[in-house]
Description:
This protein has helices spanning 7-18, 27-39, 82-95, 108-124; strands spanning 2-4, 43-49, 55-63, 67-75, 100-103. It is α+β, with helices and mostly antiparallel strands. It has a single domain, classed as Aminopeptidase, CATH 3.40.630.30. Strands 1-2-3-4-5 form a five-stranded mixed beta sheet, with helices on both faces. It is globular, with a radius of gyration of 15 Å.
Amino acid sequence: xLTKYNREENQKIAMGFLSYIPxxxxxxxxxxxxxxxxxxxxxxxxxxxxxxxxxxxxxxxSFSTKTVFIEYISLNPSYRSQSNHFKIxxxxxxxxxxxxxxxxxxxxxxxxxxTESQKEEMExx
Length: 125
């Protein structure tokens, strides 16, 4: 489940997940990243919950007319798996059904596999 990031409620949680990203380990880079998503209406951060009550990661999205671009996904180490990435892709598709989903270089292969699995599911129905 994706929940839109709210600075007042979720800043420490978001900072924790973002700190898993090597370029954001430095506090000034981390603060700049959060500021970027606060100030640019075409960029949004979402906290992600798996089936548990606590948040499991964060997803950074940017938007254009009919495209949602996944900038990055940062998950708690115990949730880092292809199946969880697929769940996140499913959640994004549900939340933004009229958008084409694209992803960064680090996500391209998994996104392609997810798209193929979606086609296979549709064909088997």
